[in-house]
Amino acid sequence: MWEVAQRIRGRLAGWLRNPHQDYTPLWSDASNSRPLSRKYVLLALVLIGASALTNVILYGKLAKRWPGPLDNYQPLTIQPVVNDDFLRTRSPPLNSSENAIVTSLYTDSYATAIATLGHSLNRANSTASRILFYLPEKISPRALCIATATGFIPRAITRIPPPHGGKGVYDHFMDQYSKLNIWTLADEGYKGVVYLDADTLVLRNFDELFALPYNFAAVPDVYVDGMGFSLGFNAGVLFLRPSTEVFTDMLAKIDTASYNMHEAEQSFLNHYYGAEAVRLPYAYNANLAIKKRKPELWADVKREARIVHYTLVKPFLKEWDNSGKTVVEIRRMESNVQNKLSAFGGMFKEELLDWVGIWKETRRTYADVLTVCSGASATLPSS
Ligand SMILES: *[C@@H]1O[C@H](CO)[C@@H](O)[C@H](O)[C@H]1NC(C)=O
Ligand SMILES: *[C@@H]1O[C@H](CO)[C@@H](O)[C@H](O)[C@H]1NC(C)=O
């Protein structure tokens, strides 16, 4: 009963946000209805009329419902995302002992993605320290070797289990609370951290993030269903100022705070920072879902995108295996991506080719160390 009510509420909310979506009018069966339902139709018309009249009285006109500015996207602004003059005069040079980029490896199948991410950071002349969080019990020596081939320094972390034994958490998010370990980097003198999910790729330098005066910033999430452009942020790219005190506080609250468990740490962080999370432009987390939702917006976002997030299609994972249980070998990676070009009707071909282009460069540039990695054991230390 509750689920049915939720579904109806969801549909209604989706329709209100996106009036162009297909829907069944409430009065579609009016022609073959009995007089009783006609009475309801009449009542509804009276109510609509009354609300229109109220609008006219209050605002002097009939209110027009526009789609949101992103679903109604037009390229209007002429300014770039970042004001370079301001940055040049106001931000100190980046100190790599105080600023770090962190990513995480929880399963072997993401190792090649992290090697590619590291090389993409090299290409963008990124100078912040690079730290790779990994779960030692879940990662083989070979995967760790590949993931650190292009500049990430490995750091074994302790898994933070999901609260309530993981009840209600999506399977592929079970390890995600471990991400909260980022806040402990304050102990080592880090003052600013950019966290990047392993399925991101850097296209341009984003050092300006380290000059933000805020404690926490992230990019609003985008959904391909009725939720569309959301105010809640995506936890795949974060800027934060680490603090051990905050870390301890978070651990105490993941159990007791009330939030939707499905999306794990993303949901928790959205609640923890609530109205105080600074919303960054999509250029910092150019989520493929934007392209699916509004291609015109994507075309503009991509002109300045610093970080692309491969949410809907993951070039480095085996076809039809978005859970990442199967490792794609280095020599099979290019054909693996080729097989994915037609996903979503070929919509992401350009982005997949961007990724494979940087992967090929990675493989060429780091051929020696990758060859050494191939000789390392691919079995887990615990097995
Ligand atoms: C960089 O940061 C470290 C640690 O805070 C500090 O000791 C060092 O002096 C800084 N270097 C520069 C050039 O500011
Ligand atoms: C990175 O630095 C090199 C050498 O200084 C320069 O030629 C190149 O244009 C820079 N790349 C980017 C993306 O800024």
From TrEMBL:
<dbReference type="InterPro" id="IPR002495">
    <property type="entry name" value="Glyco_trans_8"/>
</dbReference>
<protein>
    <submittedName>
        <fullName>Glycosyltransferase family 8 protein</fullName>
    </submittedName>
</protein>
<keyword id="KW-1133">Transmembrane helix</keyword>
<dbReference type="InterPro" id="IPR029044">
    <property type="entry name" value="Nucleotide-diphossugar_trans"/>
</dbReference>
<dbReference type="InterPro" id="IPR050587">
    <property type="entry name" value="GNT1/Glycosyltrans_8"/>
</dbReference>
<keyword id="KW-0812">Transmembrane</keyword>
<dbReference type="Pfam" id="PF01501">
    <property type="entry name" value="Glyco_transf_8"/>
</dbReference>
<keyword id="KW-0472">Membrane</keyword>
<dbReference type="GO" id="GO:0016757">
    <property type="term" value="F:glycosyltransferase activity"/>
</dbReference>
<keyword id="KW-0808">Transferase</keyword>
<feature type="transmembrane region" description="Helical">
    <location>
        <begin position="40"/>
        <end position="60"/>
    </location>
</feature>
